[in-house]
Amino acid sequence: MFTSWGKTALLLGLALGSGAQDVITSDTAFYGQSPPVYPSPEGTGLGDWASAYTKAKAFVAQLSDDEKVNLTAGVSSNTGCSGFIQAIDRLGFPGICMSDAGNGLRGTDYVNGWSSGISVGASWNRELALSRATYMGQEYRKKGVNMILGPVVGPLGRVALGGRNWEGYSTDPYLSGILVSETVKGLQSQNVATSVKHYIANEQETNRNPTTDSDGNAVQSVSSNIDDKTMHELYLWPFQDAVLAGATNMMCSYQRINNSYGCQNSKTLNGLLKTELGFQGYVVTDWGAQHAGIAGANAGLDVVMPRSSTWNSNLTDAIANGTMEASRLDDMVTRLIATWYYLDQDTVFPHPGVGMPSSASSPHEAVIATSKEAKPVLLQSAIESHVLVKNTDNTLPLKSPKLISVFGYDAYAPLKYDLSNNFNFGLDRERSDLYQNGTLYVGGGSGQNSPAYIDAPIDAIKRRAYEDGSSVLWDFTSEAPTVDYTSDVCLVFINAYATEGYDREALSDTYSDAIVTNVANNCGNTIVVVHNAGVRTAEAWVDHTNVTGIIYAHLPGQDTGRALVELLYGDSNPSGRLPYTVAKRPSDYGALLEPSQPEGQYQYFPQSDFSEGVYIDYRAFDKDDDIEPQYPFGYGLSYTTFDYSDLKISKTSNASSAAYPASASILPGGNPRLFDELVTVTASVKNTGTVDGQEVAQLYIGIPNGPVRQLRGFDKVSIKAGSSASVTFSLTRRDLSTWDTNAQEWLLQRGTYNFYVGRNSRDLPLEGTLVY
Ligand code: BGC
After folding, report:
1. pLDDT, tens digit (0-9, with 9 covering 90-100), for 313-370
2. What domains can you pick out in the chain, each with its CATH number?
3. How far apart are CA 460 and CA 449, in angstroms?
4. Which of 159, 178, 320, 761 has the smallest C-beta neighbourhood within 10 Å, fewest atoms?
């Protein structure tokens, strides 16, 4: 399992014991073994955290030991918050309410159901990500939720069948990084703290938590074994962007990283997060992810949720007997309270949990978080969730159809939508690869949400028929429905469900495939709409001549039907692009199709070797250029066409081109010199069609000794028919660098860099080079 140098590193690590940080260097890579990094760095108020720390320190100085300990773990409350930190009344601290999740507030009424992370990824739209988060943040604030348990950038989507890939944005760290950054800014602009999760390398649901096998043997969580370079260039990248954007909290993950649990891993918490990235906020466990006592605190964990069975008064005992420094406890509490001050929650925030009743039937006031102002953003987020990938002979937009026939189990709203199941409306946690109880507008688990309403596709189609005087027929239940011969168009709605707690069984299912094929065999204009919580392959019908249109709709939230109808009838022009690669067949994902399983000598200590390094998704398909995708990363059609010209690549005149960034005081996000702009790229894009549209111009670069292409810029622009727009991409030092494991620095290599600009990762008409 481990390479010989990995074993050597292990022996070395054991011989040196903890505290040997200065001797163990990461040029030994420590694959499969996590090096010790101690002591835990104290938050000092770097950057714009200074005044929050001054206030927090003054606050903490007034606390008794018991009060400090109480702040380090959650308590039960009479609210429906997912987690609660108790109040300290004598100091006017009202407590902290934390609740799920990144697609809308879960567990209460009068909130919106927003498009999911994967839909934000599909929008490739920075401004939209920002406004979506801003309006979502307003809802959290009105409800007295101090911290949203999101957004998600882990999983990144390494495993195609991963059950939670839909909660994050994209398999690409650059795209995820930009979108998480906008999301953090939007949410925190409303004084709501963000808990960016799941830190880190939480790439599968299988064995995410320790279990007991059928013989009663303990089985530990899976270990994500990652080398230092891959960690920096792929998995840490979007978390770094989140810290740079001001993220106040990180949720450490369930699984192990290099065989050390995520919430007691001193390398990832003390080392990467709190030292290298200069993180000033606090680390909270995923719910129930604490697997150690004092060791977790010393490794950099600050707060345990939903409660701790091991900390409590043991923390003060540990200080008394010397196993933990008193300064560590102070730091844990200071980081928490500093976050509260950083977001001005001491002055402008409603009472924690005010809009979070413990159950639907308990007496509670209606705290209405939905607003008129949010509606256009809610709808636009739903629209840009959709990616049109097939449109034979421009069958879309529809041209005054007289008869629309609608098929499939995914077209209608759930038959029951009430306040049962502790406000988790509609979607349960049952594992299934399709969801037949109503249209799929969100995935399952803690990321699901409870919208004000669900506007299903059939509802919106009928409204349109009313306006147009057209007719609609439907059959939601038959696998081989009867098709009216005169149908102008047949719309088939299927889905690909995924939920927290399970990885998916397959990338497609035969039942849905049969519905599509049966309709297509009898309808010359069949358009398939897939609500997909992750990759959905379509090998059974993608090339069927009667399948004239395919839309990957993802998870649009409550306005799913309205958004779709706007697109179908051309009131909006599709502008979503795939935030992942759709393969021709599942086996094209190779070893990254399925999660790792406990096996062989590691059956009790499951191992997942990230031995592919940075070569996941399109980076793997492009390697040696031998796997042709069905639809490449970044792909998506519009009702118009765009031409590219005029590529210009220029170095910023006064920027340093030294191999390593100049040393500078660390700020949240890391060495600020990493974010100096080194290169600007511009190009011209012309709308050559007859309707207005939005194009996502994409920049990929080939960094020496790296993948053929990596996304390093995108610019979404609205262009009127016949007009041109200029697109601009600016590249930072980090964008051009690779992680040098010996120097422990980002290295700007000497050599030739290839630049490509165009429509998607495989259609890049403009090319150029730059030499360093
Ligand atoms: C999930 C987290 C979630 C937490 C609280 C956990 O099971 O992994 O994403 O925020 O529960 O509900």
Report:
1. 999 999 999 999 999 999 999 999 999 999 999 998 999 999 999 888 888 899 999 9
2. 54-342 (3.20.20.300), 372-591 (3.40.50.1700), 640-771 (2.60.40.10)
3. 21
4. 320
